[in-house]
Design a protein that fits this description.
It is found in: Cytoplasm. The chain is α+β, with helices and mostly antiparallel strands. It is built from nine helices and 18 strands. The protein has a six-stranded mixed sheet. Strands 11-13-9-14 form a four-stranded antiparallel sheet, covered by helices on one side. The protein has a three-stranded antiparallel sheet with strand order 4-5-18.
Amino acid sequence: MALSSGDVKELLINLLKIYSPSGEERGIAEFISSFLKQHGAEAWIDEAGNVLAVKGSGERVLWLHAHMDTVPGFIEVRGEGDLVYGRGAVDDKGPLTSMITAFLNSKPEVTLVLTLVTREESDSLGSLSLIKSSLPKPDGVIVGEPTNMHIAYSYRGSARVEVKCLGQGGHTAGPGVEDNPILKVYSAFNTVVGKLGNGQSTESYTVTPTVINCGDHPSKVPTECTMTVNVRIPLNSSCMELSKVIEGIECVKIIDCTDPITVNVNNPVVRSLVRASLRNNVKPILSKKLGTSDMAILAKLTLNLAAYGPGDPTLSHGPVEYININDVLLASNILINVVNEFGRISMQR
């Protein structure tokens, strides 16, 4: 059953009303699974909590891949004209809505697989679980992300780094105050920045402290202090290189890491997106992204990849998040055209 433009806006608003930070996606997964079934799709929820659906039986297999989770932080859901506000409007429920719409409204000559995953904003468990799944192996994957409808073929990597220092603790006026774990943590953090640098380009590291947990009383030196640091890894580096650079810095260890990825801009997914954009009078723009996505994980299945979706990525994770419903509709139409193009395009270039 095809969705109208009114249905699409209603779907997006309903998805935004379901609060779904990483690890708490069960409610939204059940809603989406039920919605897909009501509209005639074969859909189910797997052991990782992902919502999966398959349509068509063509020889080529195309995945439409997006994530259901958001970062924490509730934002009131409301509509103002064409703008829809709410946590995840941009990242990632706007792109996800476009993909659901394209899946339901397309008549694929390919085997079309919808993979809506959990925990992308934390440990990417949802995507990782699909690497060895029994789903039809993809010949191409479109990763739903807010790219302003640019065609993203490159993402920096990302590492979660823990800086954890210990001390003797005690009175703030007592001996040994120089053994303060808070000071040790900031010293270690500054050492990390000194070794990596700190920039805002695809060719530089970005080192950002995000959480700090130290002490429990204003006149007591704590015995422990922990800082969580997000490190974005440039395209010309890797998790292994990062590990080598910060190896030996006291108190510092890498908790998890995703490598940067760059795919060939002539791969059939990118070319299908270019052609589909032109068919909808949208100038195709290829871009490298400063952030990180599950593209690096999905590259274990195929290198025919691109990220694409509506939404201004600078609004992601912020206190104000909104998307234009017309962009969601346009992106879904372009994705429908991509499904058609991918069934016909040459896989060689």
